[in-house]
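Dear support,

We are seeing what looks like truncated structure output for some complexes. This example has two components. We would appreciate it if you could run it in full and send us the complete token output so we can diff it against ours.
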Amino acid sequence: MSEDRLARLALSGRRKFKDRAVRGAMLGATVVALVPLVLILYYLVHKGLSAWSASFFTTDPTGQSFFANKGVGGIRSALLGTIVMVALASAIAVPVGIGVALWLVEYGKDSWLAKVVRFFVDVLTGVPSILFGLFIYIVLIVGTGTSFAGYKGSLALALLMLPIVTRSAEVVLLLVPDALRESALALGAPRWRMVARVVLPTARAGLVTGSLLAVARAAGETAPLLFTAAFTYKTSFNLGGFMNSLPVQIFNDVTSPTEALVNRAWGAALALVVLVLLLNLSARLISRTGRVA
Amino acid sequence: MSERATIRPVEVSTPQAKPAAPAAPSTTTTTQAPTIAVEELRAFYGRAEQLKGIDVELPANQVTAIIGPSGCGKSTLVRCINRMHEEVPGAHAEGRVLLDGRNLYDPAVDVTAVRRVIGMVFQKPNPFPTMSIFDNVAAGRRLTAGRRAGMREKVERALRGAGLWEEVHERLSEPGMGLSGGQQQRLCIARSLAVEPDAILMDEPCSALDPIATLKIEELIAELKRTVTIVIVTHNMQQAARVADRTVFMLDGRLVEVGPTKQIFTNPHDPRTEEYVTGKFG
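Here is the complete output from our reference environment:
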């Protein structure tokens, strides 16, 4: 009897076949998605590594070398420019973004103003990055009749980072258990001190992770810098003047007809990917030590 | 229980708390704690009325247990006493809570001061996860900008008061989350004691603990009432019978009966109380 039932309830050959077919299709989709990823990384490492040398990181790029087709220089000014501009952008966007998130979670909550802020933060998250560059270009360059400058690039990057930092920080702050807020308040803590001493330390790792991901995103952006910080060969720490950056140098080099410059672009692209990878890795490591998120 | 030996009385409460020797042997100091009187208290969540007019007195240096079925408003009542109820979005309360005659709902009263005078222990132990054992106890004072001087003595006094000192004094810098559930709850009690409150509200403090840990907390409550007035919400009627001097029975947002614990359990005047304490409903 029971043997009969087992036989009757067994999967039919048709269903077994369907199961196998669907599983196969999913595996196929995964492989298709992986192919371009692997190819990009392979090309990048293959082409980029051949451009790398000790002097690649320590020399500034030289100009178009149609005539003296040797010694195109490296990426020093671009690497340092990216670091300086992204650092300034982070110094603006991270505190402001976390501040907005704190207000949303601890004070604004479900008020209409908080809903409006949340809506605009969401809208900003979806804005194409070139619009941030365009906005700064129109306001700070055309509007003031002044020239390109590193700090204007930083501002454009900060605008790009702001919604990312705010959104990730809000999610992390919401993960802090309300029981902790309650017990701090029940001890007689004023709200701001409860936030500073209990909520922020508890959410610290998650806040750092979210901010680092925003930093990584900003480091790879070309569009906000193209017509705000422009392009230059020389290493410069003057945020008031033109500044080079990795994405913009790649953009310029890769469109050049000179093979040496295209190779320099590959080397710079690999450097940029490694930089972003390091930022992502440290974000992961830090999030692992976290209390929440 | 050998635990008894580690519980030593503390001197907290009174604004001019005298500096007691931290390791004082078991004296039987009693500090006058305040009486809390609840008058015409109504509490709301949005439009819903959860407490429909409560009048009850919670006498000084006594343990008052609040019992009643789920949803009857026990927790809301204690959360109204230290004004934590209004932290819930959309919630508010009307009426008066008098602490030795001072109305805590007077607009001139600072809500953070209310909570420093009336401490609270929650259902689930909730030490601050980023802080060490020491810092958890010190947090009460740091969060309220209490004077930093003599923090070590104050932390030790609070931990002794919560009967936890002997178990943790060698690892004060370890995280508070590393303790067992019962120890965490006593850590939370120490955290409230460090603020030197005059009264402590306990919202089902043992419902997440095992019987041994529960017993320790109950012994602690008996010890603490020498210095503070205690209100404890409990689902466990045996617990109410064990720890409380007086018991309040609530039903559907109203107070049904209040009296000495023994009378409530052996000779209740109201038939609904009798049905509840004999287990006919709830």
